[in-house]
């Protein structure tokens, strides 16, 4: 592996600048300038269709079938929906960031679709990326960069931990929705057990570092190096660290080294320099080979990919990489993805790779976020206590006429997937918390949707608003059978006044409102920057790390930017 000196690095930057000026001069003299950012649409999408507007990807709703008995509805036959994506093309030349097209989940009629099923998600990348847009670029983020579930789950909440046999516990809370008091807001709160660091199994961590030319910016490789140095202090003697770099040709920078040898690891990190084109496919293969060679039986074996996502020269296609990552996941070698940088983030690709590898996806926009990811939350991010965690809720049509899951658009599952243990879902790490919100329409209010005309529905009398179910698997136990947690929510447990809810509920609802405003959601109701800001400020609570106070500033900045 060849590492570049500071002098060579500066010289290369000078050459890049000169080449860029020459290209721009040549383009300006051309009588046929090449169009920037054009994309051909699929036959089903016209230039005026929603899919043809923002984003480089679009989602298409497909029918899903139902399965399993219902508690509240004696007969139903209407399908739900699932999503697929297809590429549309690239964005403008000087901003090639890519985000998957997101269409807000709609309201669903409980008479035809009483069951909602989705996979949990502990990713936090979207929030840090939104912060980067607002605080560094001073502009609103693209709508498709805003994944509301990741914004909610960025924060720490004081949820009740599990006390019994299960590694996760669920708490349900419901109150009037602040942006539409005639509707209800349901919070689903999941908390994973927290294992003391000293009691965690040993870790075999392989850091796959993107050292290509695109990483040669202060907020990319240099920021990653600073963040990794924070991580080194957290390592224990029983942990092993390897470093693989890829830039043109993949290479082993540091073979498995004990966490006790911190100076050796720090020296290897310091030597990393950016240069060359990206060969991500080759790098990932080598990283997995190193992870397998140093595999710890019963331990935490994981590849951690650190990149801006610009896989532009790799020998394998993205689909080939995803298949390989899925195969390695079955061998209990997981993948976590850390994104950095501005201008060419391949957000949808990095999220997809992490999903396939049973890992999480985080974005580091500054050193404080690096400290959060590689310091404060390191073990929760890399040590799994529950895998393939799925949630299913059946709503009582006698009480709830319609419901809408807020966020999780790319985590939706078919109803039958809940009981199918071969279907992959999200993982929860030590101490992780997952939050999801539903907006519910009470029976008797003017419906958002029309009732069915031809189908006869018989409703079973019950005081329960809903039945909640959660499935998970225990990692590393050799058993592929999932375990079930189930509970009912009685309408007597409903908070009559929103102000009576705990700080966590009220603060998280402000994050939801902020996300809907950033996305300009058609379901935002009476949401406003001021109401989100005021509610978040009033519900900051203890806020030891200042993240909630920072959120209030983000909302204030968004209001200023939106008003320009």
From TrEMBL:
Domain VWFA: residue ranges: 204-382
Coiled-coil blocks: none
Signal sequence span per UniProt?
1-33
The keyword Signal belongs to this UniProt entry's keyword annotation: yes
The record's section on Pfam families has: VWA (PF00092), vWF_A (PF12450), YfbK_C (PF12034)
Q: What are the protein's UniProt keywords?
A: Signal
Q: What is this protein called?
A: VWFA domain-containing protein
Organism classification, top ranks?
A: Bacteria, Pseudomonadati, Spirochaetota, Spirochaetia, Spirochaetales
């Amino acid at each position: 592996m060849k590492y570049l000196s500071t002098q060579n690095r500066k010289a290369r930057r000078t050459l890049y600048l000169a080449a860029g000026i020459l290209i721009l001069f040549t383009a300006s003299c051309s009588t046929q300038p090449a169009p920037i950012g054009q994309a051909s649409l699929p036959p089903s999408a016209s230039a005026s269709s929603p899919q043809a507007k923002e984003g480089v990807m679009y989602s298409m709703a497909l029918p899903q079938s139902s399965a399993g008995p219902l508690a509240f509805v004696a007969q139903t036959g209407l399908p739900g929906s699932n999503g697929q994506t297809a590429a549309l093309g690239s964005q403008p030349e000087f901003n090639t960031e890519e985000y998957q097209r997101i269409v807000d989940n709609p309201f669903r009629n409980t008479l035809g679709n009483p069951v909602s099923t989705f996979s949990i998600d502990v990713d936090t990348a979207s929030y840090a990326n939104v912060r980067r847009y607002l605080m560094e670029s001073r502009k609103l983020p693209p709508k498709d960069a805003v994944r509301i579930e990741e914004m909610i789950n960025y924060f720490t909440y004081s949820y009740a931990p599990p006390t019994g046999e299960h590694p996760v516990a669920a708490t349900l809370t419901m109150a009037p929705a602040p942006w539409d008091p005639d509707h209800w807001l349901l919070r689903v709160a999941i908390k994973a057990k927290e294992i003391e660091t000293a009691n965690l199994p040993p870790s075999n961590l392989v850091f796959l570092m993107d050292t290509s030319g695109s990483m040669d910016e202060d907020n990319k490789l240099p920021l990653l190096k600073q963040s990794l140095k924070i991580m080194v202090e957290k390592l224990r003697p029983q942990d092993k660290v390897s470093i693989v770099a890829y830039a043109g040709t993949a290479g082993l920078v540091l073979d498995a080294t004990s966490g006790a040898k911190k100076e050796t690891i720090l020296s290897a990190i310091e030597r990393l320099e950016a240069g060359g084109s990206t060969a991500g496919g080759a790098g990932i293969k080598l990283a997995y080979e190193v992870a397998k060679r140093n595999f710890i039986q019963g331990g935490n074996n994981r590849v951690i990919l650190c990149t801006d996502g610009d896989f532009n020269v790799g020998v394998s296609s993205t689909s080939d990489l995803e298949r390989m990552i899925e195969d390695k996941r079955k061998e209990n070698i997981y993948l976590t993805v850390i994104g950095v940088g501005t201008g060419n983030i391949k957000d949808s690709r990095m999220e997809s790779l992490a999903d396939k590898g049973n890992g999480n996806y985080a974005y580091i926009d500054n050193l404080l976020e690096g400290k959060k990811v590689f310091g404060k939350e390191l073990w929760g991010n890399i040590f799994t206590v529950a895998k393939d965690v799925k949630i299913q809720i059946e709503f009582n049509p006698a009480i709830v006429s319609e419901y809408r899951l807020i966020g999780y658009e790319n985590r939706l599952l078919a109803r039958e997937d809940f009981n199918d243990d071969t279907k992959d879902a999200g993982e929860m790490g030590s101490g992780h918390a997952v939050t999801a919100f539903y907006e519910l329409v009470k029976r008797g209010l003017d419906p958002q949707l029309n009732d069915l005309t031809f189908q006869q529905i018989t409703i079973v009398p019950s005081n329960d608003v809903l039945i909640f179910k959660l499935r998970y698997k225990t990692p590393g136990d050799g058993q592929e059978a999932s375990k079930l947690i189930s509970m009912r929510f009685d309408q007597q447990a409903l908070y009559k006044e929103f102000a009576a809810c705990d700080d966590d509920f009220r603060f998280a609802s402000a994050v939801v409102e902020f996300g809907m405003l950033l996305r300009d959601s058609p379901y935002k109701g009476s949401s406003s920057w001021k109401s989100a800001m005021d509610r978040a400020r009033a519900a900051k609570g203890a806020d030891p790390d200042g993240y909630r106070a920072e959120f209030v500033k983000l909302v204030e900045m968004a209001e200023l930017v939106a008003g320009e």
